[in-house]
Amino acid sequence: MASSYSYSVILEPQEGGGFTVLVPALPEVVTEGDDEREALANAEEAIRAVLEYRQEQGMTIPVDALPEIRRVTVAA
Fold first, then answer.
1. How many distinct helices (H) and strands (E) make up the chain?
2. Which pTM was predicted?
3. Would you tell me which CATH number, out of the four given (3.40.50, 3.30.160, 1.10.533, 3.30.70), belongs to the domain 1-76?
C-alpha cells in the first residue's frame, strides 16, 4: 500500500498573473500555474515526482515543514 504525504506549499502571485509554488520541505519543488488550481495541480505532480525519485535513490522522505511567514520592513 502506498504511503500518503501532506506538504505545506507557498503560492506566490506573479505580477503578470498566475502563481509560483514553493514547497519548504522539498526545496527542489518549484513550479507554477496560470491560476491557483493549475499551480496546485502542478505542485502535486512535482511533489509526487520528487518523492518517487527520493525513494528510488534511497533518500529520506522529509516530513512537512510548516513555514513561518514574517514581514520585514526596510528603508531603501
1. 1, 3
2. 0.86
3. 3.30.160
